[in-house]
Amino acid sequence: MTERIELRLGPDERAESPYLEVPFEVPAGVGAIHVRLAYAAGREAVIDLGCSGPQGWRGWSGGARSRFTITADAATPGYVPGEPEPGVWSVVLGLHRVPGAGVGVVVEIELDGAAPLDPEPPEPPVPQRPPRRALPAEPGLTWLACDFHAHTLHSDGTLGIGELAAHAVESGLDVLAVTDHNTVSHHAALPRVSDRYGVGLLPGQEVTTDRGHANAFGAIDWVDFRRPAAHWVRDVDAAGGLLSINHPLAADCSWHQPLEANDRPPLAEIWHWSWLDRTWTGPLAWWEAWNPSTVPISGSDFHSPAHGRPLAQPVTWVACESAAPEDVLDGLRQGRTAVTAGTSEPVLLRVDDELVAVDADGLVLADTAGRRQVVHGDMVRFPGAPGPHRLETPLAAVVALTR
After folding, report:
1. What is each CA distance from 268 to 11, 139, 241, 271, 363, in whole angstroms?
2. Burial classification of residue 262, based on how many CB atoms lie within 10 Å of its CB (0-12 exposed, 13-18 middle, 19 or more buried)
3. Taking the CA of residue 263 as centre, how many other CA atoms within 13 Å lie in the half-sphere pointing to its CB?
4. CA dist., res. 76 & res. 130, Å (int)
5. In a 3-state reduction of DSSP, which class is residue 193?
6. How far apart are CA 165 and CA 195, in angstroms?
7. What totals of helices (H) and strands (E) does the chain contain, helices first?
């Protein structure tokens, strides 16, 4: 049984709502749902794809896929397996880009039958990890190398979860947040893969809209990206997670979701791979204007080895009791972070009420008031003055930062 729905979508439809639900009925006894989306894709037309069922959200693939399958025991990556319960379902279309002349869209829904599932690729052998870096820390804590932004086949990445974990180990990471777009379908596999590869895999989801992105960290339920951003903050906090604004100054996905001062999330991705020229101080200016008490983190926003944007560049050091997700979240809540360009790069830490510059000989310690001191030595301690601080080159390129 196949249902074919033809639509013509234009600027009026997008102005009414950036999300369009296409309902369909699933009778009792259906074993599989297959959906295919077709349109004239290109620079001017981008239609995202997702699905909800009578019992809630079932997944999202955005613009990365044009089809998906959901069965009781398996589903296309990005979608949650489970019984196709009877009732009214919806194909959810995201009208990300719609040209002025409009675009023709065809949605085909097939119940039962056979269709490919795009299974996870085989997991590679566990690679050898580079030696861990010893950094001074307060008693009971260890500085862990973390990357808080990465994607898999469950959204628009090219690697399976096991392949990404192996890559994290090779990159010298202790913790990697897996933050696929608008889905939690990857969460179920993370504990097993984390144990196999010996790397902390922090559950995450990138709450993704055309007005800004935010990472929700923690083993929490799916966050409804279609609601106002203030709801994201409250829902994530109520569930015991943490929300971080992503790449607030990045190309066409900069942050311009309205938030009142008391709704602002505790974290922000101050350093993103797109900060290519670190003499440009836009991210720092945004941080100081937004809220300098916001805890700074970073993310590589890794999608594929072919992109040339490796994991752990930049890296966030978090002082934690262990790499378990709850301990990493606790370190973030307490603001025990330091951000730098990579695992072996100079770093600026807060330890025992002091600022400690490590492997920073010849760099300059700077604060937001414009005060500067040259670092002389490989491990130098300074009085722990409050507020954001950073390490710069003599030509004012940012090398490391902390709050």
Report:
1. 32, 27, 14, 9, 25
2. exposed
3. 12
4. 34
5. helix
6. 10
7. 6, 24
Which is it for the CA torsion 148, 153, 154, 156, positive or negative?
A: positive
Q: CA torsion 304→309→311→317, rounded to 10°?
A: -150
Assigned CATH topology for domain 2-111: Jelly Rolls (2.60.120)
Q: Whole-model pTM? A: 0.96
Which residue, among 299, 270, 267, 302, has the nearest Cα to 285 in the 3D structure? Answer: 270
Tell me the C-alpha distance between 384 and 76, whole Å: 50
Domain 142-342 has CATH 3.20.20.140: yes
- pLDDT tens for residues 58-108? 999 999 999 999 999 999 999 999 999 999 999 999 999 999 999 999 999
As a whole number of angstroms, the distance between CA 190 and CA 43 comes to 34
Q: What is the pLDDT of residues 39-50, one digit of tens each?
A: 987 778 999 999
Are 195 and 162 in contact by the 8 Å Cβ rule? The answer is: no
Contact 295, 328 (CB under 8 A): no
Distance CA 392, CA 374 (A): 9
Q: Is the separation of the CB atoms in 106 and 39 below 8 Å?
A: yes
H/E stretch holding 333: helix 325-333
β-pairing, 175-181 with 142-147? Answer: parallel
**314, 357, 322, 311: which is closest to 339 by C-alpha?**
314
